[in-house]
Design brief:
This protein is mainly alpha-helical. Helix content is 59%, strand content 3%. It contains 4 helices and 2 strands; from the N terminus they run ααααββ.
């Protein structure tokens, strides 16, 4: 070889610091990034349980996918257990995804204004989806009135 030596990106000569053009903040930044990293790992594990439980109940139990209709969902959401299950799955999935996209924005958006704009749009969209999803789960009427007739199912109270 020609004797070319490639220095380590953070060699002892530069005190292990990033060059100024690669620094975005001047302080340590607190524990937020560490907590976000930890949240991703923990929420991922919980989401695996929630999603596979959801899929098992919806696709494997009973008649499988052929039984999934309004009555199936209405019967499921008549139970507070399944409302909380689906709510936890919705919230964790949206927060997990939002945190992942936030990380991508931080990694690839170079200008502060671009980063702020993208994160604002992300947080507004995520917040809207969480609010709407929560409203759907908790305001869903499993015993609707259709053409003036109250639907009577096994999970509906007597008319």
């Amino acid at each position: 070889m020609s004797g070319i030596v490639v220095e380590s990106p953070r060699s002892p000569g530069d005190s292990g610091r990033l060059a100024p053009q690669y620094r975005r903040s001047k302080g340590k930044g607190g524990n937020f990034e560490m907590l976000a990293w930890l949240f991703m790992r923990l929420s991922g594990v919980v989401l695996i349980v929630l999603v596979f439980g959801h899929l098992f109940v919806n696709l494997m139990v009973g008649d499988g996918v052929h039984a999934v209709d309004f009555g199936f969902v209405a019967g499921k959401w008549a139970s507070p257990f399944w409302q909380v299950w689906d709510l936890a799955m919705l919230w964790l999935a949206l927060l997990h995804g939002t945190n992942g996209v936030r990380t991508i924005i931080n990694d690839y958006a170079e200008r502060n204004a671009t980063r702020l704009t993208l994160k604002t749009v992300l947080y507004l969209a995520s917040g809207t989806m969480i609010v709407l999803g929560t409203l759907v789960i908790f305001t869903f009427d499993p015993c609707p009135v259709i053409d003036g007739v109250k639907t009577v199912s096994t999970f509906c109270p007597a008319p």
